Amino acid sequence: MQLQLHTPLDMHLHLRQGEMLQNIAKCSSDFFSGAIIMPNTVPPVTTKEQLLGYKREILNNTSGFTPYMTLFFKNDYDKTFLQSVRDELTAIKLYPAGITTNSEGGVSGFGIEELEPTLQAMSELGIPLCIHGESDGFVMDREAEFMPIYESIAKNFPDLTIIMEHITTKAAVETLQKYDNLFATITLHHLYITLDDVAGGMLQPHLFCKPIAKRPEDKAALQSVAFSGHEKVMFGSDSAPHPRDKKESCGCAAGVFTAPVALPALAQIFEQNGALDKLQAFIGDNARRIYGVQAPEKTVTLEKKPFEVAQTYGGVVPMFAGQTLEWSVVQ
Ligand code: NCD
Ligand code: ZN
User: Fold this and answer.
1) Could you list the mean pLDDT of each consecutive 10-residue stretch along the chain, which spans 331 residues?
2) Alpha-carbon torsion 83, 85, 88, 90, what sign?
3) d(CA 238, ligand 2 centre) in Å
4) 21 alpha carbon to ligand 1 midpoint, in Å?
5) Is 238 a catalytic residue?
6) Which end of the chain is more exposed for a tag (fewer CB within 10 A), N or C?
7) What CATH number does the domain located at 8-297 have?
8) Domain boundaries, the chain
């Protein structure tokens, strides 16, 4: 059995910089037509020069791949600045300060007055806002506690396209449906795992990520919107490579590296749930509509043939390392 995917897009991707980028970029560009590139580099992408430099670095290390660039949200971006970068960027990513890897320079107050000037300018210029929606509360409650902030931004800026990044809870799935301007990305790993897979037995550092995987009922809610091809959700891998010694260590970095396995693992879980006909919507069509992007045509053929996942790709341990998936990409 074969399956063709047209112009697959990854709407949340960490490609890093330098040697790491050189080692792992191919794991995305071999399979995806384009991706939204996260700006939490060191230092974060906050200027036009950095954005263009980073885009050039990605283009130099990939082929047939469109990097959709983002800026790291700052309260002091004004309309003149945003106008000057408008044509180079696809979205702006907002992180609460210190909530995840390289987010120290994020936002520490979510009062609408503080965010208003930048969000108003983004709304007028049609720049989508991507949000890492977690509070600083108890780790399992962080996403649910962020829902009032999503609601307040959605209500106050009805013309702003807001992407709830890597949603992990039933609460987020419910909030998503309440406002026309809310959309969401869902990762591969949150469709597969719960906290039990991370910490229920021996600790699995390669499945440790932010937001942490939640309860079975949360996973079921994510599966239900993804497998229905729901028009407000799209695939965003949040593939987040870290060197092996930063994962298998005391003080494990957050992030699951899924780029090399994403398409086969998605085909497997969509098929197992009788939803293979909805994968095209999830992997590209919804994203094109939500973001209004037109990536160059690329057809990727998958076939139902065992795929033995390697222990490492570019020196980084992927999800499903050493395991066999039911689908493979026809090279
Ligand atoms: C991401 C990373 O490593 O950059 N980590 C993660 O656990 N997902 C950052 C992020 O998206 O939160
Ligand atoms: Zn991320």
Assistant:
1) 98 98 98 98 98 98 98 96 98 96 92 92 98 97 98 98 98 98 99 98 98 98 98 98 98 98 98 98 98 94 98 98 98 85
2) negative
3) 4
4) 15
5) yes
6) C
7) 3.20.20.140
8) 8-297
